[in-house]
Amino acid sequence: MPRIVRCGVIQTICEWSPEKYSLADIKEKMIAKHEKMIATAAKKGVQILGLQELFYGPYFCAEQNAKWYELTESVPNGPTLARMQKLAKKYKMVLVVPIYEVEMAGVFYNTAAVFDADGSYLGKYRKHHIPHCHPGFWEKFYFTPGNAGYPVFETRYGKVGVYICYDRHFPEGARILGLNGAEIVFNPSATVAGLSEYLWELEQPAHAVANQYFVAAINRVGTEKPWSIGEFYGKSYFCNPRGKIVAQASRDKDELLVADLDFDEIKEVRATWQFYRDRRPESYDEIVRTLRPGSVQAAD
Question: Which domain holds residue 22?
Fold first, then answer.
């Protein structure tokens, strides 16, 4: 029999501007919104659910302001994760929960915590690749590069990996997640039209094909005030190990996207395309070798 796993992702807009609401109020309103949508996911029988990047607030990296450090929480003992943990247990649902993590004073990470369907905390993924190159994406002001590797979490329903937003531009970590056994990789993101939308439906299906697993791509929606970095265009989706998008959300509204994924399809694809058998890791040293500026390798 097929091994069907019902998966879901949530994309939302943060409609509460820090010009009018306190950070605490925004956070509570966003958590409450998500709690309702998680309850809806439970009614639909979702078994694994992923939330968007920095889910309980706006994408505050549009500016550089230390006030946003107030949104940090410890992992796994922060108050938001305590609420999510209870929901995971209540609904027997695996939850991938991206938050703003504090490890110690002044050391912060862009992190996703993973809870199993019994509410147990399985671990976290810390975003590795931190952008600071486009107007409105000032992430190095807020985040330390991740240092916890590329874990894959053995959940009740399947093996779950996480890659966060800008990470998706780098194939190396996506491959490691496959080597570590991921059956589905969730990529919570915050990306706007006119910047990387042309890549949105290219890169992650390419990761799915190259690594022969499912991908759940999540993007928020709408324009967040008071900033004007552009419109978050949603279009969250699931793609299969052949790189085909099998379900996709709208561009401009809050939405819970649900898809039934046959995890046995991974075996079928790998029986056809033996990428893991035929890879040549002993020949890939140049990928990680430190290259001198002006060297032949660097010029290539």
Answer: 4-264
